[in-house]
Structure formats: structure tokens, C-alpha cells
Amino acid sequence: MNTQPTPSRDPLPQPASPAGTGSTKAEAEIIRHPNPPSPARLSEMTSPAPAPASALSRHLAALPDRLRSVAINVLPTIVTLCALLIVWQFVCGAEGSSLPSPLKIWTDSHELIVHPFKGVSLDFGGLHIAEGGDVGIAGHIIASLKRVAMGYGLAAIAGIALGILIGQSVIAYRALDPLFQVLRTIPPLAWLPISLAIFQQAGPSTVFLIFITAIWPVILNTAAGVQAMPPTYRNVARVLALRPATYFFRIMLPATVPYMFTGLRISVGMSWLAIVAAEMVQGGTGIGFFIWDSYNSSLLTDTIVALVWIGMVGFTLDRLVAWIGRRIAHQS
Prior knowledge:
MetI-like fold; mainly alpha; 12 helices
């Protein structure tokens, strides 16, 4: 029997089964990321972006740092003051001490300390001080500050103008600087008889005394600032043909502000010293008159309270002028 070989047939290709089914042996290969994110990072990636911090939240976040800075600056002063009061009380607390202790000052001058604005009223017309002398210590401080404001303001205007003049002009510097150096060495109270002879009244005489005391530091420091300006500043002003007002506000003022306000800070302290001395001699109203009247009345505790007020007001005036100088320098 002849047997014919049957032709072989290639099997038909089978379609690939989907991954995950058991119909085929080969499974789809999964390529893994070499550095897979952590669960926390994955949560951050999938969570919505946070809203930008508001200005209030930023200020609140910086508040602890500000409190820490204030504590670093203020705490040593408070500790020193407390230690000074304790030593003062320990030394002067015994009977027969010539200087009153802090507790005695609080007891004897309690009314003056608690009610400093007695006799002072404020309305739309301004501050009013009662007549007759029954006024708290703040009323005397305000009366003195009014005189200081007038004399110091005039000294600042005249001193800056004269300082610029002798700082820019060599001839004016040679003519006026020796005269200013002689006049500034005269003590403030030595001008009092001259001022009384000229004005014949206590009020204008006091203002003149403050003016003549405060003007010299302003003149000398302003002149030093103008002389310290680089020559290129003046050359640029000449090339651009700047007007005098533009030259002053754009070039001269920014260059001389540190020198100018150094003189103004010295002058405000000297003005406050001069007003106290002048009022002690002339009488009337003011913190100087209050100190002298308290001494004559044997009220030493009131005198010490007035000295504390004088120191605090002088410190405030110095810081105020320094703050104005920093603001003007920053804007310039």
C-alpha cells in the first residue's frame, strides 16, 4: 500500500492575549522608576498648592523675632534701672538721709506723679494751660517746649543757611569761621543780660538765648558736610546747568544730611539745657522755674521728679530728630 505523505501546515499565529490573563505564558514587562517618590512626597505632589501667605501672616510670623530684638535692647536698661533703684533705696532709706529715697519720693510727690496734666486742657484751639500757677508738671514742660520750638526752629533755619554759605565760599569761610569759633565758646547764661537789655521782656529773651545757644553746632556741621562733598558733584551740576533749588535738593541735601542732622541733634540737646537754665533765672513758667520754685519751697522730692521729666523729654527730642534725619536721608 502506497502511502502519500501529507503536506505539513504551519500553525496559524495566535493573537496575543491581554496582560494579566493566563492564556499565554509571556506577560507584559513593567518598567519601574529608579527612584520612586516617597509616600509623603507623593502626597505633596497630589495635594493642591497652598494659598500665598498674606501680609498679616507674615507679620505674625516675624513677631517673635521682633519681640526678641526689643527684649535684647530694652531688657539691659530695665535691669540696670531696677538695680539702681534698689541701691538708691538701700543707701537713702535710713532716717535723716539728705537725699530722699524712691519710696519717699513716691509718697511725698504722689499727686505730682499721678496727675502731671493738671491744669492742661486740649480742644480745637490747641493746648491751654491754666493761669495762677496751679498746674501739673506737664504744663510747665509744654510751656518750655513752646519756647524751645521757636528758638530751635530759628536756629536750624539760620544755621543751615550760614553753614551752606561758609561751606561753599572760601572767602565767607575765612571771614566768618573765626568769629563763629569765638562766639560759640560763650556760655549760654552769659547772653542773658544782653538779651534782657535788647528785648526788655522775659519771653523774647528766652527765645533769643535758645537761638544763640543752638545755632553754632548747626552752622559748623553743615559747613563740614558741604566741604566734604566730592568735587565731581559740583562739576556735574555745572555741566547740567542745574537751578539752585534743584542743585540743593538733588545733590547737596543728600550729601550733607548726615552732617546736618548731627549738628541738629547736638543743638536740640543744648536748647533743652539752655531753656532750663534761663527759666531758673528769669522765673515765670516753665520747667526751670518749677525746679527753682520747688527748691525754694524745700520740696526736694518734686525737684527730683522734675529732673526725671527733663531727662525723658530730652531723650525723646534727641530720638525724634535722629528719626527725622534717617527718614530724610532714606528719601534723598
